[in-house]
Structure formats: structure tokens, C-alpha cells
Amino acid sequence: MISCGKQRYQDESLEQSNGVYYWRTDLHLDSTERAFLKQHHINKVYCRYFDVVMSDDGTEPKPNATIAFTDTLPAGIELIPTVYITEDCMHKPHKDLAEKLVKRIMQMNETNHIGNVHEIQIDCDYTSKSRATYYQFLEQVRHHLSPTSYHLSTTIRLHQLSMPVPPVDYGVLMVYNTGDPRKWQERNPILDYRDVYPYLNKLAQYQLPLAAAYPVYQWIRNIQNVRIEHTVEAAEILKVKKALEKERPSLSKAVITYHLETDNINRYKTETYEEIYHH
Amino acid sequence: MKRFIIISLLCVLAMPMMACLWWDTTNSYLFSMYEQKNFKNRVERICNDNWKAYLGSTEEYFWFNADDAIKAARKKGDVLMVSYLQNLKKYLNCVDIEQRKQYEWNYPTPQDINAQKRDLQTVRTYAIGKTKTKLRSQHALLYMRCNMILGRHQDNINFWEQTASKFIETVYKDMMKNIYAGALYKSGRTAEAGEMFAEMDDYESLMTIYYKKRSFQAISQQYQQNPNAKVLPFLLQDFVNNAQEAEDAKTEGALGGKLFIRDINQQESVQMQQFCQKVVREGKTETPIMWQSAKAWLEYLAGKKQEALKDINTAMQMEGTQRMKDNARVLKFFMTTATAKPSDSFDTYFTEELTWLQSKQQTADGFFDSALRRISYQAIVPHYQNKPEQQLALMIITNNTDYIERMETMPVADLEKFFYYTKTPGDKPFDQFLQRQFQINDSSYIELIGTKYMRLAKWDKAIEWLSKLPLTYFNYHHSQEYLYYSTARKYDVEPWLTRQWLDSSNAYKREQKWNKNIKLEFCKEMQTMESSLNLLQDKALDQRYYDLAVRYAQASLKGDCWWLLRSSKNIYDSVRVNEIDFGAKAAELLQKTTMTKDKNLKLKAMFAMGWQELYNATPGAKLWTSNEWNEQAADYIRQYNRESWQFRAFQNLYNMVENTTNKPAYITKCDEYDQFRQYYSKHK
Predict the structure, then answer these.
(1) DSSP for A71-125, written as a single string
(2) B103, A182: Cβ pair inside 8 Å?
(3) What is the C-alpha separation between B649 and B607, in angstroms, rounded?
(4) What is the rounded distance in angstroms from the CA atom of residue B380 to the CA atom of residue B372?
(5) Alpha carbon of B621 to those of B18, B598, B625, B644: distances in Å?
(6) pLDDT at B23
(7) Strands A226-230 and A219-223: what pairing?
(8) Are the CB atoms for B48 and B1 separated by under 8 Å?
(9) Residue A253 DSSP one-character state
(10) Residue A134 neighbours by CB under 8 Å, 6+ apart
(11) A-chain residues within 8 Å CB-CB of B633?
(12) Is A226 within 8 Å of chain B by CB?
């Protein structure tokens, strides 16, 4: 019975793909980044369009840190507008938020001549407190996308694996920011196998197609103007990938790295990236 | 004018930074040689004051409103101002387009963008034509702002150098200079831009410029070019604070090779110390106190404490700004407190310095507040380690939040002493000084002392203290959740048979109140039950052991009645120092109960000893099975802990009941025991 169930929801609808997140405030690629896209056959760029945060007076959600488009992606790469919404925006429903968000994305595409868009992704660290509102919001986003053929996806953090699945076409399992940032002396807050381990047994049963996103970034914290940096060793990323795929083999179908940047490209060997993108 | 200022800096600031996380630290930076005045806030305030004056308003002016200003200008017949304001409004609409791109739901359409470009050109042409009028500064600023958004940085450089720099000093000129500095930066003239930003207290822009270029070498080169360069305090302070961060990180835990603070190693620090000495010796600097203090603090961080003290004393005699002098005094206060031996003469010095530092609290940019925090945690607490009353008093006085934890964990006798210390006028001036600085809530202390005696199972003493409290205190002082749990749960229910689950959201559905002092009742009951133990025998004694075990288990940290010993529950809580392990005590009583001849009671006691919550609060205690991290395998490995109390308890239970029929339901329905059974039947 269980194996039949697995077949039904596990990732069959996902196409094999190599993706990257683009998380800067200006879409501008240098030659290293362009070469990376080509070398690793990246066909999807999840591009952060803007954040949604609560306004200063705490009454309504507002866009923030919107991307500027000073460059374009190489031909043939699909751009997926991605919006990060802070969790407090989902503490209660906000009228028309889904409609405003969809309209803004569409307008950004039109004003900046962005084509080849078939999907949008919403990123939110929803909790048990905000889950119901967030799922309702996703339903509304889906409704406002219905005149188009756009798909809808969302990020799934490890702790969210124990909740009911969201109403989207697929989720991206965020395999980063797994630790407690205040306990960085003990474990790497970006990724530590020991923090992933308790969630492994949730994977096989999670009833939503899943892609997986792995960290290749340095986390720069600015504490009182002092730069503190964390990086994950390649072996740790690959170990986690192996453990996840053991529990849910189809997680290797759609792989994304977070995030595209020359420093991140240079941080790891080409072979490491090849292993991360190995299907 | 808020929108003005934002946009004037927007094109300069592009910090190469991602996620930013900050929380209040206790290891704040002690080297802070200039007050963070913040350019943005300063010009915004002056502009608002100017508009307030023009409008003849008596109220504080926060937001510029072009239409109100146009109306007022028309009324005054100020034609030039009207045209300026109309164009300013047009410019602000262009800024709005930029703002909409960033912060509004109605993202601009292609038509909006085209209109913006057209309008900027129009306003730019208008503004340059009015730079010889009586509103020349305002128009010149308008012209430069248009250029900035249009990316015409060279035009701004030329205009400033040839024209605007000769204007009289106004806030508009300050803003033009800021835009000019930004244009220099955009054009690659970084050093000049940096000097100007430093002069203007624009630290955000400075950090943008020097973000990746901060080093000893950069500072020495800057000094060679100009020993009094305005950017030097910024760079030196950043260097010293990085060195402090590196040293703090060393003592705050293993980094595992995964954390890379900007690498100020010992060698670079020593180079800087020598360089500071050279700067002071050369006598070209106008602020030797800054360099000498930097040397002293770097030495202190590197462990050369005596040299550091000598150098900070020397620094105190040197020239510099008042802030630099205050900073040197703070550094000396920290170093002296951290290194001096306890004595009356030190207490006299300490009193004077603490009083001074307290007088500086909530002034300037918050530096003195954060400095006191670090001094409290890192110097005051260790210095008064052997004077617990003074130490706790100082923790309260300096808002050191560790004092709550300290009171919770300190021996109850020490807390009692402190309680009496606060009530008895001190003999020494230092004690009198401390006692003047704070007041305590007597009832909270009485409850805590009584509860600490409960944690030691010293029921007589607990009763003595808790009897002093009126019922109203509990109902007023404790949270709704606390009152909800404590009124709904009973401590005589066997927790291994029945868990008293509650929905915490019900806590607020109706007002919760105690009708009796439940903690006191519990203490009295325990006292009676324990004091009559030696009067009992046989089954009555066995039953008493069991009943006491129930109460100890319930009152333990993992019991349903955790509220007897704690004011809140945390799943990570474990038994602390200066308290007894109620779970272990319950297990010990259950062990005695198992000697009974009453088969049912014996079975219940044996089963109860397998209840994992009896062991979960004991540091280092293991359950019958656990997933343990294995370094060699770099993975979690399932382990079976045959030596653990729980394993043995289940083992005994298994041996007793496995081959029997009609097992009680509490055994057959227990998942955990069933798992044990499955394992143990194959691995005896």
C-alpha cells in the first residue's frame, strides 16, 4: 500500500531540470556566471523579484527590495519569478494580496520585457501559526494565475515536512538554513547533516512533488558592522544529498543550487557542482 | 523631505551584502571614537525645520507636502518659489516611479518609465537655468538630483567643482556635496569620495566604499597620505573592532574551521600596535589619544594586560575629542575592573566610574549603554565572584539579564543572604551606594526562596517561606497559562498511567484563579507523608512509597505538575545545581515499592520505573534506546543502553510478565514497552 502511494505523488510530474536561484537585487550576469549556466546545463533560473514585508506601521504587506533588470538571461533559459514573503505577513489574511502580487509580477515582466515565463514561486517560512492563511493565499494566487497557463510552486523547509502539503504544483525542498543561527559555534547554521537527519523519515511520505535546493553560498552576517561568514564544505552538501535521495530517490530529478554568483561558483570545484546536479 | 534623502543615497549605496542578522550582544565593541551622528538624519531634520519656518508653522514638520508649500508660496507672492516647487513636485513624481519600482504594488508601466525620463530632462533643464537666482542652492540641488537618477555622474562632478562648491554653506550644499561624493565614487575616485563621506558622517556610504578594503595596510597608506585624514577614525575603529571580534570568537566556542571573521590575526594586530606607537611618536596626528587607546585595547585583547593598562593611562593624558576621551575612560574602566584585585580602594574607584558611566546612559548613539553591558558581563561579574551579594546587586543595577538565571541556580542560603542584604543598611560606603541603586520585589524573592527549598525537598523551610505570601500574590503575579495548568492538573494522579493533557489555548478562555495556595498545600502534604513514614509498615508503607513517588514524579520537571518547582516549562530543562532530582527520587521510591508483597502494586511500580520521563531531566541519563551520533560513521547509530535504569526496569518487567496471561491493559497498550519487548525477546 505504501509503495503504491509513493508512486502516486512522488515527483513524476517534475521534469528533469537543473536550476539556480538568483537572489541579488540587480539581474546582471558576468562571464563566469554565464559560463556556469552553460556548463551545467541550467535550464531554470528562480529569480527573486521582490520581497513582501509588513509595512513599518505593521498594517499591510508591501513589496521591498525589488530587482532591477540591467541584463537578460541567455536564450533558452526559463525564468521563474520568485517572491519571498515574510512569515508575519501570513499571520492574518490580507485582502487582495494575491491579486496585487500576481499583477505586480506580470507588470514587471511587461515593463522589463521578460518572456519565457511559465511559473511563479512563493517562498515563505510558514509555521503552524501561519500555515492556514498561507495555503489560502496560495489558493488565491492560483486563482489569479488561472487565466494564464502559469504553474505555481513554493519552497518547503524541513520543519514544514510534518505539515499538510500546500496547494501548489510542486515544492522545492530548501536544504539550507537548517541550523540555529545563534548556535553557530556548535553547528554550521547553513547546513549540517545532524540537523537534516531528524527529517529524513518524513520525506518518503510527503505527498507533493519535490525538487531539492542545496546551498553553495557563504552566509555573511553583519554584526555591528563586522563581517562574519559561514560556508558549507562540499562533502557535507553531497552527504546530505545522498541521504535525502536514499529516502526519496526522485529528489534527484530537479536540482537547484542557492544561489548563482561568481564567488559561489569559484568556491566549489566543477566536479562538486557536477555531483550536486547529478540525476 | 524624506523621499528626497532616500533617493539621494540610493544610487550610492549598494552594499555587497546578503542576509543580515543582528541581535543584542553582550560583547559589544568598546572602541568607539566618534559619535554616529548619521548624515541622513541630520539633513532630513534641517530640511524639515526649513520648511516649517517657510510655512510659518509652529508644529513639528515631518513630511514634505509640495501642494501645501505651493499654496503658501502663492500666498506670499513668491513666484520663483512657486516654479521651484512645481518642478520639485515633478521631480518627486519621478522619484515616486523609482520608489514604485522598489516598494509599491503598482509597478511602473513602460509608459511611466518613458514619462519619467522625459520629466527628468525637463526639470534638469529648468533647474540649471535658475542657478543664478536667489534660490540657486535649491535649484542646483534639483539639477544634481536629476543628473544622479539619469546616471550623469560626470555632469555632477563638473557642476560641483565649477559652480556649486562656491555656494554659501547650507543644508542644500551639504546634500549636493553628498551627491558629488557619490558621483566621485561611481567614477572611480574612491579615496576622495571616502574622505568626503567621513567628513559628512555618512557611515553607510563609507562602509560601502571600504567594505572590502579594510586592513592594516589600508590604514597605514591612508595615514602616509594624510595623518589627519577624516576617514582614519572610521578605518581604525573598524580594524580594532574586527580584532575584538576575532578575540571574542576564540573564547566563545569552537569554530570548526567554518567561520571566517575578517582575518585580523595576531601578526596584523601587532603591526597595528607598533604603527599606533609610531603615529603617536611622530606627533603629526591631532588625536593621539585615539591611536594610543587603539594600541592599549589591541594589547589587552592580545593578553598583554599590564602594557595595556600602562598605555591606556598614558592615553588618558593625550589630546583628542571629548568622545575620544570618554572612550579612553570606558576602556580603562573595563581593563581595571577585569584585572584589579578586590579591595576597598578599588570599590571607591569603581563607584566613581560606574556613577559616571551611568550618567552617560541613553545619551549620544547608545555606545555607553552597550559598553556598560559588556563591562557588566565580562568584568564586573567576574570581579565580584567572591562577593555574591554585591555581585547580584551589581547585576541588577547594570541590567545584566543573567541575574535571573543566577538567582534560579544559586544556593538558597545565598539567596536568603542577599534578601537580608537588601533589607539591612550596609556598613561600608560601597554597600550603601549599591543599596541606593535598586529595589527588589519582596514577594517574588520570598516565593523563589520557598520554591528553592521545595526543589531540595526541605518542606519545613519551604512552608516557612511560602506561608508569608497571600493568595492574591499568586493570582496577580503568575501568567494565565501558569494558573491554568496549576488549577487543572492534580499531583496525585499516576503520570505513568494517565497524562493530564491540556489545550493551552483554553488558558485565556476564562479567568484562571487559585482558591488556595497550592504550592503550600503540596509542601504540607509531602511533609506529613514523609514524617509519618517510620510509623508505617508492610503494605501501608509500600503504598506510601508509591504515593510519594507519584508526587515526586508529578513535581519533577517532566511531570504534569512542573509548575510546583518552576514558573514555566521548557522541553530542554534539566535538573540544575542546588536542587535534587525529583525524577530520580521517584525512581528510588518506586524501587522500594517493588519489594512489596502486593502483586498489583509491585507490577505498577515496576511498570512505573520504565516511564521515560523519570530520567529525561537527569543530565547524562540514557533511555533504553537512543540514536547516538557516531563520529567514525558520521551518522546516527541506534544504540541499546543495557546499563540504563529504564532498560533494567523494562527488563525486570519483561521477566515478570512475559510468560503470564491477563496482563494489565496499561502494559499491553504501552507502545514503548512493546518496542522494548520486540527487541529484548531477540537480544536477551
Answers:
(1) S-PPTTPEEEEEEEE-GGGGSS--TTHHHHHHHHHHHHHHHTT-----EEEEEE-
(2) no
(3) 7
(4) 10
(5) 42, 30, 11, 7
(6) 39
(7) antiparallel
(8) yes
(9) S
(10) A90, A124, A126, A166
(11) none
(12) yes
- The label of the residue with cell 510552486 reads A153
Q: Are strands A254-258 and A210-215 parallel, antiparallel or unpaired?
A: parallel
Cβ within 8 Å, pair B28-A224 = yes
What are φ and ψ of residue B327, in 5° steps?
-65, -40
Q: Does A99 contact chain B (CB < 8 Å)?
A: no
**Alpha-carbon span A75 to A72, nearest angstrom:** 9
Is B254–A185 a contact, with Cβ atoms under 8 angstroms apart? yes
State pLDDT tens for residues B355-377: 999 999 988 788 999 999 999 99
Angle between helices B171-186 and B203-210 (to 10 degrees): 10
Chain-chain contact of A185 with B108 (C-beta, under 8 angstroms): no
Among A94-103, A233-242, B238-247, B398-407, the minimum mean pLDDT is found in: B238-247
Rounded Cα gap, residues B195 and B501, in angstroms = 66
Task: Tell me if A221 and B19 make a contact (CB, 8 A cut-off).
Answer: yes
Looking up cell 573592532 gives B241
Residue B212 has φ and ψ, to the nearest 5°, of: -105, 10
Tens digits of residue pLDDT in B418-447: 999 999 999 999 999 999 999 899 999 999
Q: Which of A113, A185, A186 to mutate to test the interface with B (most CBs of B within 10 A)?
A: A185
Condensed to tens digits (0 to 9), the pLDDT of residues B220-274 reads 999 999 999 999 999 999 889 888 877 776 655 433 332 334 456 778 889 999 9
For B455-489, how does the pLDDT look when each residue is reduced to its tens digit (9 = 90+)? 999 999 999 999 999 999 999 999 988 999 999 99
CB contact under 8 A, B261 and A228: yes
Question: Residue for cell digits 526541605?
Answer: B458
CA distance A109 to B615: 60
Look at residues B574, B554, B557, B579 and name the one whose alpha carbon lies nearest to residue B455. B579
Which 8-state DSSP code applies to residue B378? I
* Percentage of residues in chain A having pLDDT higher than 70: 90
Taking the CA of residue B418 and the nearest CA in chain A, the distance in Å comes to 33
Distance in angstroms (rounded) separating the CA atoms of residues B523 and B454: 7
In 3D, which of B356, B437, B349 has the Cα closest to residue B390? B437
C-alpha cell at B68: 501645501
* Predicted local distance difference test score (pLDDT) of residue A188: 82
Q: Which grid coordinates belong to A213? A: 535546493
Going by C-alpha positions, the residue among A169, A158, A79, A152 that lies closest to residue A126 is A158
A106, HSE (Cβ side, Cα atoms, 13 Å): 13
The residue among B675, B618, B666 whose CA lies nearest residue B644 is B618
> How many CA atoms lie less than 13 Å away from B573 in the CB half-sphere?
21
pTM above 0.80, yes or no: no
Strands A254-258 and A17-22: parallel
Do B22 and A224 count as a contact with CB atoms less than 8 A apart? Answer: yes
Which of B 507-566 lie inside 8 A of A, CB atoms?
Answer: none
* Whether the predicted pLDDT of B16 surpasses 60: no
Top residue of B107, B113, B503 to mutate, by most chain A CBs within 10 Å, is: B107
| Rounded distance between C-alpha atoms, residue B558 and residue B574, angstroms | 9
- Order of strands across the sheet that contains A219-223: A219-223, A226-230, B259-261
Distance separating alpha carbons of residues B388 and B407, to the nearest angstrom: 10
**What's the average model confidence in pLDDT over B24-35?**
80
| Residue percentage of chain A with pLDDT more than 90 | 79
pLDDT band at A227 (very low <50, low <70, confident <90, very high): low
Using an 8 Å CB-CB cutoff, list chain B residues near A67. none
- The verdict on B238 touching A (C-beta cutoff 8 Å) is yes
Interface check A9 vs B, CB under 8 A: no
Residues 248-277 of B with CB under 8 A from A: 252-256, 258-262
